[in-house]
Amino acid sequence: MRFDVITLFPEMLRVLTDCGITRRAHEGGLWQLATWNPREFTSDAHRTVDDRPFGGGPGMVMLAEPLAQAVEAAQAAQRAAGVQRPRVLAFAASGLPLTDAKVRRWAGEGGGAVLVCGRYEGIDQRFLDEYVDEEVSIGDFVLSGGEVAALALIDAVVRHLPGALKEPSAADESFADGLLDAPQYTRPEVWRGRSVPEVLLSGHHAQIAAWRRRQALVRTAQRRPELLQTARASGRIGPAEESWLDAAAASGEVKK
Ligand code: SAM
């Protein structure tokens, strides 16, 4: 899979190719990264990429033209690499939420994506209307720029590319089955007086699986009840699991 990132700060993307799972997957040829700086697509002496907003207001807005030329250069590079129609995504706090379902879909489809990182107060809407397939938000907060969002998206997609993970843990992780992950423990068995739950030391696989499932259900009910409702609506919670949740509510572990 190929990512072309349009950014005023290309050096911020380096962590992906320098560290961890994404570095290994990059070295293994599972994905490629190129960056394009809109300043390289300006024609004035100051290499201007922003201007004041029409209608007034604080801050600056990114100019459409340098971004358009950068995206066209990125699309041409994608085509040269064999990707005919890369998806063009722009990061925006006002965009549609990035979800596990989208990440898995994009990883499954492969191909390529052009990611546009905003800065300042954002991007001229006419560029977004002309070039962008979807505006993407990584959460209900405002970042200084889209680069951190690009890191999050690429990291999340790359770990789903076949061969990126040494063990196929992505299938058990949070959101994979609509629930949050169960708590994890490692050595020592007792740390500062806190013991690992006994069942995890039992070697009894069925009991461990049941314990993890109950923990995932209870944790999801406690922290993200809306996810539990969606899992219920899609028939992913059985009667025995409902009775665990009823018992957790009766004991006060989960609020009704
Ligand atoms: N004026 C914008 C607003 O209120 O929505 C905020 C602009 S922000 C300072 C600059 C850039 O950071 C945005 O153009 C976008 O690319 C990126 N950004 C900020 N928050 C983001 C978020 N939650 N998700 C994705 N990108 C974000």
Topology of this protein?
Elements: E1 2-6, H1 14-18, H2 20-27, E2 32-36, E3 50-51, E4 61-62, H3 64-80, E5 87-97, H4 100-109, E6 112-116, H5 125-131, E7 134-137, H6 147-158, E8 190-191, E9 194-195, H7 205-223, H8 225-233, H9 239-250
Parallel strand pairs: 1-2, 1-6, 5-6, 5-7
Antiparallel strand pairs: 3-4, 8-9
Bound molecules: S-adenosylmethionine (SAM).
S-adenosylmethionine binds next to β5.
Sum this structure up briefly.
This protein has helices spanning 14-18, 20-27, 64-80, 100-109, 125-131, 147-158, 205-223, 225-233, 239-250, and strands spanning 2-6, 32-36, 50-51, 61-62, 87-97, 112-116, 134-137, 190-191, 194-195. With 256 residues, it is an alpha/beta fold.
Can you give a write-up of this model?
By secondary structure, the protein is of the alpha/beta class. Helix content is 39%, strand content 15%. It has helices at residues 14-18, 20-27, 64-80, 100-109, 125-131, 147-158, 205-223, 225-233, 239-250; strands at residues 2-6, 32-36, 50-51, 61-62, 87-97, 112-116, 134-137, 190-191, 194-195. Helix 4 (100-109) links the parallel strand 5 (87-97) and strand 6. The two termini are 44 Å apart. Residues 91-94, 117-119, 121-123, 137-139, 141-146, 149 line the site of S-adenosylmethionine.
Determine the CATH superfamily of the largest domain. SPOUT methyltransferase, trefoil knot domain
Which structural class best describes the helix and strand composition?
alpha/beta
Which residues sit in consecutive blocks of at least 5 with pLDDT less than 50?
Answer: none
- Give the number of DSSP strands: 9
Q: Can you tell me the number of structural domains?
A: 2
Strand content: 5-15%
What is the CATH class of the largest domain? Alpha Beta
Main sheet properties: 5 strands, parallel
Q: State the distance separating the first and last CA atoms.
A: 44 Å
The share of residues in helices is 25-40%
- Which compounds are bound in this model? S-adenosylmethionine
Largest beta sheet: what is the strand line-up? 2-1-6-5-7
Tally of separate helices: 9
Q: What is the CATH fold-level name of the largest domain?
A: Alpha/beta knot
Report the radius of gyration as a whole number of Å: 23 Å
